[in-house]
Amino acid sequence: MASYPRKEVQEAVEALHRIRDKASAGEIGWEALADMFTEDATYIDPAWGRFKGQQAIRQFLRDSMQGLKDWTFPTEWHVIEGNRVISRFQNRLPGRRADGSYYQVPGVGIIEYAGNGKFSYEEDIINMVHLYEVLQECCWVPGPDMKMPQKVVR
């Protein structure tokens, strides 16, 4: 596996975060993130499963984010070690608790840089039990267009 300069990896991570921020703000569709992945990339999501290939990732992003227009996903920090990036982000639901804190659940993304501004792998790790507890606490109700994860692994 080739090793890439830290500056190149950092620039790609910043581009990925910019696209995520725009998608989170509703300025672009989530499927735009698929352009940041190689044709043969793998993406693993804790609720939706494993997706292989840029087109499968594009469809996953389109389907999985449908109905979450009122959620945001701010990145808190990231670290780079060679071609690998670890980032911590929040799954932030709308509203706040009486004490002012957000209804949110942290997640960690493990991402592998593959060169030319693209990534070959991402695995997101989220405590799904915690997510369900926060969903109940804040009484979030999915919109009519929300899609649920499929049981088929792709």
Count of structural domains: 1
Largest sheet, described in full? 6 strands, mixed
- Percent of sequence in beta strands: 35-45%
Note the overall shape: globular
For the record, the CATH class is Alpha Beta
Strand order of the largest sheet: 2-1-6-5-4-3
Radius of gyration, in angstroms, nearest whole number: 16 Å
Question: Could you walk me through the main structural features you see in this protein, from its secondary elements to its overall organization?
Answer:
This protein has helices at about 5-25, 55-65, 130-140, and strands spanning about 35-45, 50, 75-80, 85-95, 100-115, 120-125. It has about 150 residues and is an alpha+beta fold. The protein has one domain (about 5-140): Nuclear Transport Factor 2, Chain: A (Roll), CATH 3.10.450.50. It starts with 5 loop residues before the first helix and ends in a 16-residue tail after the last helix.
Question: Which helices and strands, and how do they pair?
Answer:
Elements: H1 6-24, E1 37-45, E2 49-52, H2 54-65, E3 75-81, E4 84-96, E5 102-115, E6 118-126, H3 128-138
Parallel strand pairs: 1-6
Antiparallel strand pairs: 1-2, 3-4, 4-5, 5-6
Concise account of the structure shown:
With 154 residues, this protein is of the alpha+beta class.
